[in-house]
């Protein structure tokens, strides 16, 4: 069975680390792990904004970053804000402490409202509150365990 996951920016930061499990899961989601990954479009802006930090932290040249960055849209379904923005009020209510993560919650609620089984992949413990609203939240470690890796 395919697992649908909304992925947050913090998880995707580690995509740029060589030999990271995040990179492996993103680059080979359907074939080996049967994952379908989604993210709000703002994730691209967020990662681009931190380009220099990511290059410095993971020893990447700007050119390598650009190549990897451009590949994200091949492996992750990027969803425009207007598709799920009607779920922002519900997400804001659920995440009063984590306003910066509202787009991830709103996208998750949009999927849930359509009847899709959706989970959120985030290492932010504050997002675990979404489980009260029927959205399972996996940290990277929990996802690895769930996939039997």
Give Rg in angstroms.
15 Å
Q: Would you list the SSEs in sequence order as H and E?
A: EHHHEHHHEHHHEEH
Q: Which fold name fills CATH's third level, the topology? A: Rossmann fold
What is the residue-averaged pLDDT? Answer: 91
What top-tier CATH class fits best? Alpha Beta
Second CATH tier, the architecture: 3-Layer(aba) Sandwich
Question: How can the largest sheet be summarized?
Answer: 5 strands, parallel
Give the % helix.
40-55%
Low-confidence stretches: none
**Tally the helices: what do you get?**
10
Strand content: 5-15%
Question: How is this structure best described in words?
Answer:
The chain has 149 residues and is an alpha/beta fold. The protein has helices spanning 9-13, 21-27, 29-33, 42-49, 51-58, 62-75, 81-84, 88-94, 102-113, 140-146, and strands at 3-7, 35-40, 77-79, 118-121, 136-138. It has a single domain, classed as 3-Layer(aba) Sandwich (Rossmann fold). 52% of the residues lie in helices and 14% in strands. The chain has a five-stranded parallel beta sheet with strand order 3-2-1-4-5, sandwiched between helices. The mean pLDDT is 91.
